[in-house]
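Whiteboard transcription, Tuesday session. T.W. wrote the structure tokens on the left side:
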């Protein structure tokens, strides 16, 4: 299985290109993803991971993602190689995005308390389940 889930900050605005063969949009950007642990006496380290988003997702990323913004990306790792004009072989490992989400907390002036969540997932925020779901006693629970 090849599945990657990342959350980090964009190091630059997404860069948009179009393929030569069929004019498909591709957006490229880099995420700074903090490492989980910090050694005592050192600053937090980050990995800089290249992301590629194709077609509609690439269009979404190029339109709404900006440098410094925190985002979540779900995708797969891909490696590729090519030879340049001088015959030098180049190797690249990148994440091909399959899903992308806003992950910043609410900024001042935004309407609603779940603005980023609702922009991404609609109005299905936890706690907004409605009155159809109710547990009357713990005896009804299967665990």
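and on the right, the sequence the group agreed on:
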């Amino acid at each position: 299985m090849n599945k990657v889930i990342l959350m980090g900050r964009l190091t630059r605005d997404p860069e948009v290109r179009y393929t030569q063969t069929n004019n498909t949009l591709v957006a490229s950007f880099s995420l700074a993803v903090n490492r989980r642990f910090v050694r005592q006496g050192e600053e937090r380290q980050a990995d800089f991971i290249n992301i590629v988003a194709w077609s509609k997702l690439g269009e979404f990323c190029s339109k709404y993602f900006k440098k410094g913004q925190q985002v979540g990306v779900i995708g797969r790792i891909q490696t590729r190689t090519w030879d340049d004009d001088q015959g030098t072989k180049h190797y690249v490992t990148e994440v091909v995005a399959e899903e992308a989400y806003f992950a910043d907390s609410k900024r001042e002036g935004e309407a609603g308390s779940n603005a980023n969540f609702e922009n991404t997932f609609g109005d299905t925020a936890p706690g907004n389940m409605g009155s159809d779901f109710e547990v009357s006693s713990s005896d009804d629970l299967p665990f």
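Someone added at the bottom: The helical segments are 55-64, 115-121.
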